[in-house]
């Protein structure tokens, strides 16, 4: 399976924070959700993908190419959708098209106007009058109009109302149908990814904890609930982290089959959401 993005042993030291030894592959034709708490290193990693930051160590390749020799070619093939306005506020969409279109060999005017109509965006109003959702739609329309093969989205749904978030997710599913595009979707709102992601990459405190298919995440991780009398030094090894209460325990496991073998029918096993996994893995790492 072809990788559109490859980060190998990538480290970047910033003031008071380090992204370290990141090994990340983004597979062609799929949606990869990049999750982690605010400040975990998501935006720093994306900036290195975009060549806005250079890694101190390691290698960043997109489409099998590196930025040192192929920056223009790589950026022709990327679309970036940010969580706010990235254009000069006084410009309208006609102005922006006139400036942006000549920079891309594959720019398609007809497609641009088609998306503007589909997204119900005004051509002649200044970007500063757009809502946050409209600004994001404008960024997406531009990315799609130059035939971007990789669309990188940094917290695109943050601050959007639930209805617009649902519309956006439906739209992303729609543009993925032909299999020619790849989406890398960074967010701390994990419920969005439960609907559209094929793969999940989880970063915490600057370290990539795992990259797994959404199917494997669902198979491997689960919440386990049971009585406190079931816990001892040996059984606790089956869990990533445990929360204890007078009424019993709730714990996260990354080995469901081992829990079933160990406890049988004496515990309740439930599906763990991405939010559950983020919450418990944070506790587990800090308690080790």
TrEMBL record:
Transmembrane segments: none annotated. It comes from the Bacteria. GO terms for molecular function: ATP binding; ATP hydrolysis activity. Keywords: ATP-binding, Nucleotide-binding, Transport. InterPro entries: AAA+_ATPase, ABC_transporter-like_ATP-bd, ABC_transporter-like_CS, ABC_Transporter_VariousFunc, P-loop_NTPase. PANTHER family: ABC TRANSPORTER ATP-BINDING COMPONENT (PTHR42939:SF3), ABC TRANSPORTER ATP-BINDING PROTEIN ALBC-RELATED (PTHR42939). It holds the Pfam family ABC_tran. This is Sodium ABC transporter ATP-binding protein. The keyword Nucleotide-binding applies. The keyword Transferase does not apply. Residues 5-230 form the ABC transporter domain.
